[in-house]
Write a structure and sequence with these properties.
With 267 residues, the protein is mainly alpha-helical. Helices cover 80% and strands 0% of the residues.
């Protein structure tokens, strides 16, 4: 064999060895990638996709109506909001504020129907504020405490029926409404609502203008309270505002009319 043939065979042998090494390296890389993809979740996902008639390479891209994809933390936060948990304090706050606003305004309207003295209106309104706040606080305290006792007694019966194997009793008790918090919230809400007609009337000396300003201020406050309650409770705002406004107008009109009638009759 000639020297040229020997050199050529050596070159071919080197190329073959290099190709084999490259092939081994490429094969090892493919094996690692394949092992990473052949995990159990990937296998189960592909199996489920084939079972449902969906290609494993199928990709779904969600398209939102507003063109903006919501953030994950916002979705979790909104999904975890339990609006029923707001019912207890929301009911007490809205009811207390609306009751204070309507009752004190109606009381001042009734007094203003028979007397033009501003002192009489303010004194009647202040007395209504104090009496109403105390009444709301005591009533809410008794109501919530009764519910609390019923829930605690029910939890005790359930533990006894399960041979004291019930778990999480303290955690369940902490979720129960607090009577003192409910009473304080009702009293504060009533006072806030009652202050609106008092503040509206205290600086106006003319009787007719004072009555009109009180009615306008109370109407605006009724709309605000109705809107706030609707937003917090995720209910229709217009319907809530209309309902609260009409109810307040009816209370003031009835009180004004009956007091005017009785005052005119001089009973």
């Amino acid at each position: 064999m000639s020297d040229r043939a020997i050199k050529k065979s050596h070159q071919m042998a080197r190329k073959l060895i290099t190709s084999v090494k490259l092939g081994e390296r490429y094969l090892s890389m493919n094996i690692r990638v394949l092992n990473s993809h052949l995990s159990l979740p990937f296998f189960m996902a592909n199996l489920g996709a084939r079972t449902n008639g969906i290609s494993p390479n199928h990709v779904e891209i969600p398209i939102h109506a507003n063109g903006v994809e919501p953030k994950a933390d916002q979705e979790v936060e909104e999904s975890n909001v339990d609006y029923s948990q707001r019912a207890q304090w929301l009911r007490a706050a809205v009811l207390g504020a609306n009751d204070g606003l309507v009752s004190v305004a109606s009381l001042m309207m009734g007094v203003g129907a028979v007397k033009e003295d501003i002192s009489a209106m303010l004194l009647a309104g202040f007395a209504g504020l104090v009496a109403g706040a105390c009444s709301m606080a005591i009533g809410e305290f008794v109501s919530v405490y009764t519910q609390y006792d019923i829930e605690v007694a029910q939890m005790k019966r359930e533990r006894e029926s399960n041979n004291n194997r019930g778990e999480g009793g303290e955690a369940q008790r902490e979720k129960l409404p607090n009577p003192f918090q409910a009473a304080l919230a009702s009293a504060l809400a009533f006072s806030v609502g009652a202050l609106v007609p008092l503040i509206a009337a205290v600086f106006i000396r003319n009787h007719k203008i004072r009555m009109g300003v009180v009615a306008a201020a109370v109407s605006l406050a009724l709309l605000v309270f109705g809107g706030v309650g609707a937003v917090l409770g995720k209910t229709p705002v217009k319907r809530s505002c209309f309902r609260v406004l009409v109810g307040g107008w009816m209370a003031m009109a009835i009180t004004f009319g009956l007091t005017k009638l009785i005052g005119s009759a001089q009973l």
